[in-house]
Amino acid sequence: MASTHSEAARILGERIRGVRLGLGMSQEEIAQLADIHVTNLGKIERGQANPSLTTIVRVAGVLGADPAELVRGLGLEDLPDTTRPLTVADFVRERRSRGL
């Protein structure tokens, strides 16, 4: 079985699946309504895909969900640890410490 794309992708997929199941809908039905391929929806629900904003909004729309609720609470710590993300606050603090 393929691994998840990231913790953020896993959480998003879990939330989408939960809403879909709560509505009693199949992946095929939601994918058709959202105009995406069912295998793509399956990968999203398993956290194996990194869906675009357009796809998130489409899926949320057909589920009758607020896209913001599907991503609420996700942050940099939920992304893969490829590099340490630099925040604006980090950047400004470093720049000020150098007198720039």
UniProtKB/TrEMBL annotation:
PROSITE patterns in the cross-refs: HTH_CROC1
Keyword set includes Phosphoprotein: no
Keyword Transport on entry: no
Highest taxon of the lineage: Bacteria
One GO location term (cellular component): cytosol
Molecular functions (GO terms): DNA binding; DNA-binding transcription factor activity
PANTHER family: HTH-TYPE TRANSCRIPTIONAL REGULATOR, HTH-TYPE TRANSCRIPTIONAL REGULATOR SUTR
Protein's name in the database: Helix-turn-helix protein
Naturally occurring in which organism (per UniProt): Microterricola gilva
